[in-house]
Amino acid sequence: MTTTPPRTVPVPPLPPYRSALHPARAGFGRLLRAEWTKFWTVRAWLLVLAVAAVVTVVVCQLGASGSSVGGGPTIVLGPGGEVVNDSFRFTHRALTGDGTVTARVTGLKDASGKGLGPWTKAGIIVKSSLKQGAPYAAVMATPGHGVRMQWNFTHDKAGPSSDLAKAPQWLRLKRLGDRLTGYGSVDGQKWTRLGEVRLDGLPATVQVGLFLAAPVHEVVHRSFGGTSEVAGSGQATGTFDHLSLQGSSTDSGWSATDVGAPAPNGPIGQPGKTAVSPAGTYTLTGQGDIAPDENSPDMVQMSFQGVFVGLLFMVALGTLFVTTEYKRGLIRTTFTATPSRLKVLAAKATVIALITFTTGLLSTAIGFTLAQKTLRSNGFKPPEFPDLSLLENPALRAVVGSAVLLSLVAILALSLGVVLRNSAGAIATVVVLVILPQILSFALPLPVAQWLLRATPAAAFAIQQGLTYYPQVEHNCLPESGCYPLSPFNGLAVLAAYAAAALLLAAWTVRRRDA
Question: pTM of the full predicted structure?
Answer without folding.
Answer: 0.84
